[in-house]
Every structure is written in C-alpha cells, then in structure tokens.
Design a protein that fits this description.
9 helices; mainly alpha; Helix Hairpins; about 70% helix; Monooxygenase
Length: about 180
C-alpha cells in the first residue's frame, strides 16, 4: 500500500498514518499556542538527523527514506508555523471534518456577507499606504481569531473552533489579495 501511495505522489504522512500529526512528528503537544523557539528547535534537531545530505553513500533505500522523512518534517513544520494550518491540524486531531474541505460545505451566510464587504473595501483602496493599513488591520484580526481559536481548543469546543478557523481562512485570503493588489500600484 505504501509503495502505491508513494508512486501516486502522496508524500503527506497524515494521509498514510492519520495519527502522525504535525505535532507528533515534531514531538510537540497538540496546542494552538506553540512557542516558536521550541518549534524551531525541534525542527532543526530532526532535520540535522534526517537531512538527505547525511545519507550520501548509503543504500538507495536509506537515501529514499531520509528524503521522505525530511519532507514530512518540512511539511509538519510549515503546518505548525502557519496559524491557519495549525488550527486545521487541531480540528483534524479532534476527529472533526474541516470546514471547506471535501464534503464539508461552508454554511455561514453572515461570514460570506462580511467577506464580500471586506472585498469591496479592498477594491476601494487608493494607494499602497492604504493597502498597508488594510493589511495591518487584518493582521490584528488574524491574531484575535488565533486567540479565540486557542480558547476554543482549550475548552474542546469544536463548533467554535470551526467557526474561528473559517474566519481565519477568509482573513488570510483577503490579506493575500491585498498584497497582490499592492504589487499592482
């Protein structure tokens, strides 16, 4: 089975072993509030051991294994660094469907109306400075949503976690769009 997944280009270990969460791979407790220095420390320790450069002259199997493990560690690190992907991982740990994925439609009309208002505000910006101010406002909003998600995680309130996560997705997307718009000036 593993060979078929690898041949199909599946390199995300969570697809192969759902219990191998990004937190488990990096030896961290599942929580939204991760100490960035601790995350970096665990990541660099693992990469020092697993990096393919350490396996020069080894068997093809050992080289392939190190490449695969190093890739999994990189993916786990990226997921835990990004607050939206970290929240997504925690929702999965709870065994819940992630909003917006596969067969889980987004059913929050108020949020969708809010997103449309944000987009209109973005379209009305006149200068790079306006875009910077807009981004700062949304960076603060993303931080607040992360705080909210963290509180929801601690209470194991999956419904509220999903709502915070959805809002985080849209705030992140609007920030990306704002950065793209700034490059057009």
């Amino acid at each position: 089975m593993l060979k078929n997944l690898l041949k199909a280009g599946i390199v995300d270990i969570e697809t192969i072993r759902p219990q191998a969460t990004p937190f488990a791979l990096l030896g961290l407790e599942p929580t939204f509030d991760i100490d960035p220095k601790k995350l970096e420390f665990h990541y660099f320790c693992l990469q020092r051991e697993l990096h393919p450069d350490r396996f020069v002259g080894k068997t093809a199997h050992e080289v392939q294994s190190s490449q695969m493990m190093s890739s999994w560690v990189n993916i786990a690190y990226r997921k835990l660094k990004d607050p939206v992907l970290r929240a997504q991982s925690l929702i999965k740990i709870m065994g819940a469907a992630v909003p917006g994925e596969k067969d889980t439609p987004i059913q929050d009309a108020a949020l969708l109306v809010q997103v449309m208002e944000w987009r209109e505000e973005l379209e009305g910006l006149q200068s790079p400075g306006d875009v910077d101010d807009f981004c700062l406002k949304f960076q603060d909003k993303l931080y607040e949503l992360g705080e909210q998600f963290s509180a929801n995680w601690k209470e194991r309130d999956i419904k509220s976690m999903k709502q915070s996560y959805l809002q985080m997705i849209y705030v992140s997307k609007i920030m990306e769009d704002a950065k793209d718009q700034k490059q057009k000036y």
